[in-house]
Every structure is written in C-alpha cells, then in structure tokens.
Design a protein that fits this description.
Blueprint lengths: L12 H6 L8 H50 L6 H9 L2 H81 L2
Helix pairs in contact: 2-3, 2-4
Length: 176
C-alpha cells in the first residue's frame, strides 16, 4: 500500500514574513522552526529567480524575432534603418511592452524573496545571540544563588560557632 503524505499549504511571502518575529519567551519553538522556514524561503527564492530568468529569456527571444521581422521588412521595402529606430520600433510593440511589465514583476518578486531570505539568515544569527544571552543570564542567576547560598552557609556556620562559644562560656561560668 502506497503511503500518501499530505501536502503542506503553500507558504506565501506574507505568511513567511510574519514568521520573522522572534518570541523571546518561546525560543525553543523558534529554534526548531527556523531551518524549515529558511528552507521554504530559499526554495521560493530559487523558484522566483528561475521565473525571472525565464521571463528575461522569453523577452530576449521576442526581441530577436521582432528584430529579424523588422529588418526583413525594411530590406524588402528597400528602406534603410538605424539601430536606434529599430530598437525603438521593437520597444513600442505591445508584445514587448507586456513582456517588459512581466519581467519587472518577476524581478520585484525575486528581489522580495531575496530580501526575505536575507532576513531569515539574520533571524538565525539573532536566535543564536538570544540563546547565548539567555544562557548567560541563567548562569548569572545560578551564580547569584550559589553566592547567596554560600553566604548563608557562612552566616549559619558563624552562628553555630557563636552559639557553641556562648554555650562553652555559660558552662564555664556555671562550673560544669
């Protein structure tokens, strides 16, 4: 029997962005979830970069096709064209304008994922620092308790000595 693993819901940029915040009272959960969240962000970033690169390639191919068409049309009409006018003609075609808008959207998307990826890297460093800080604090508290405990032991020991000395003095006075 084939095992079916349920798919996790797709984590969106906004959903993952909300996961950046660290709850200092729940560092255990933040430490456990960090690698998984970072993986999802890194994977989404790679996908966004691939989509951006594919859009760029599509646009370059469309420009090459239009360039060829315009050059052939100009040659058939025996017209001379300059590179600047040819580039302007290509850039103003509806197809290229649409592809440029698409490419811009893909670039923005890839840049947002890259920024989020970098933010999760910073989150990882911050988690490390927070854990170290809390461990130091716990050590300081432990040290304070030890010092207080040692001080109390010394006070108790001195009190016992004083009590024993006072008892000794009383016995001597009473002649026992």
């Amino acid at each position: 029997m084939e095992r079916v693993t349920p798919k996790k819901p797709a984590l969106t940029l906004d959903t993952l962005r909300t996961q950046l915040q660290i709850d200092p009272d729940n560092l255990d959960a933040a430490l456990v979830e960090q690698p998984d969240l970072y993986y999802h962000v890194a994977e989404a970033y790679v996908t966004a970069v691939a989509e951006r690169d594919a859009a760029k390639l599509t646009m370059e191919q469309a420009i090459a096709e239009l360039d060829k068409q315009f050059r052939e049309a100009a040659a058939a009409a025996e017209q001379k064209t300059t590179e600047t006018s040819l580039q302007r003609q290509i850039a103003t075609t509806p197809r290229i304008m649409t592809l440029e808008k698409d490419l811009l959207r893909y670039r923005v998307d890839a840049d947002k994922w890259q920024a989020l990826k970098e933010a999760f890297q910073q989150r990882s460093f911050m988690l490390r620092e927070l854990v170290a800080m809390y461990v130091r604090r716990m050590g300081d508290l432990s040290l304070d308790r030890e010092v207080k405990g040692t001080r109390q032991n010394l006070v108790d020991a001195q009190a016992d000595k004083n009590h024993a000395a006072a008892s000794q003095v009383r016995r001597e006075r009473l002649g026992r």
